[in-house]
Amino acid sequence: MSENCAIVVAGGKGRRMGKAINKLFLELNNKPILAHTLEAFENNKNIDSIILVAGKEELEYCKKEIVLPYSFKKVKKIVPGGEDRRDSVLNGLKAVTDCDIVIIHDGARPFIDARIIEDGINYAKIYGASACGVQPKDTIKIKSHSGFSKGTLNRSELFCVQTPQCFRLELILKAHEDVAGKNISVTDDTSVAEMCGNKVFLYDGSYDNIKITTPDDLLLGEKILKHFSIDNID
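Structure tokens predicted for 2-C-methyl-D-erythritol 4-phosphate cytidylyltransferase (234 residues):
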């Protein structure tokens, strides 16, 4: 029987939030953002286990203030993050055992629904790698260094990538190990996979699946939460 493991990355400082604490510990509807995110995977029947990657100084806090109070039984390990997101994900991957598919997700995206998780897993089983996202609503311009427009991109060919990003474990682990220690700048795991010659299937995410980064995102998150619900049985 195949196993699916979610790696939730929660080690970022979130400086753009302008708060003294990790933004993931801020509350939406009297519950920490990170708890909302973990709940989505805890309640999903397709997820067998969760690895939480947190800042080294926040491991105990995550355990005592997030995992235990909210009874997240699927969180099997809380592991320390690295110097950057890429290192943190690799630490999480190395902690995974008995798993076929890994679902890598930003802790700052609490509005992930069951359909997106299930689709990601299914596509990763077929193609080896998948990521959800949405088409941009705005016209995208190429801006020159002098501030002038250099051209307009074809919006129908553009894709705003979100998480979760789902992979066969051996594929993404090898890719991360291959680029580890190299001076390569990447912002997500699809980039790591593609650098090693892997193709990533892109599928529909949701405009509600926002990443909470700024104070304005907190306000938007409160509005989304009013109509957002997680299907506990799907």
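The domain at 4-227 is CATH 3.90.550.10 (Spore Coat Polysaccharide Biosynthesis Protein SpsA; Chain A).
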